[in-house]
Amino acid sequence: MRTRDNNKEEIVKQKAIEMLVSQGVEGFGMNRLAKECGVSVATLYIYYSDKEDLIRKIGIEIGKKFFKEMLTGFSAEMSFIDGLRQQWENRSGYTLNFPLETDCIELLKHSTYGDAILSEITTDFKEEMTKFITRAIEKKELLPITFEVFWSIAYGSLYSLLELHREGKSMSGKPFLFTRKISDEAFNLVIKALTP
Description:
mainly alpha
């Protein structure tokens, strides 16, 4: 039996992420991945039992990293404004620093693998966010609203701005960069919408 080579495994993971983002789940294949990595297909099966196992494991690994980053410097005990600001910092930081991984987890989240991946990685994050939101409503720092409405108002504008940044241009075609000033302007409007 062949042994695992951690360097090869990292190359396989990175190339798989690149290929998933560029070709989608349907266009992704083990033979093409092996060729891109300069390894035999048999080498891939040292690390993963099949294509589904590879995609699921990579999605879980990226997702765990993402949700760990979301909790960095964050606590359910924070004031609503401070906690939401930390979430914006964490989300924008991850998206800007790890664009390929962000695109990959978004792609997988909306694929047939999404439910299996998310069910394995979001438990701690959901618990912490539920405590945070419940506490903010109880302290009258946040209007009582449904989760879906909260999420769309709290993060929708942030993700739209980050997408414009990724594209490098605004809807009018002018050059666009996500800056602290832009972030603060949007964040302040979000706070006005969500607080009593």
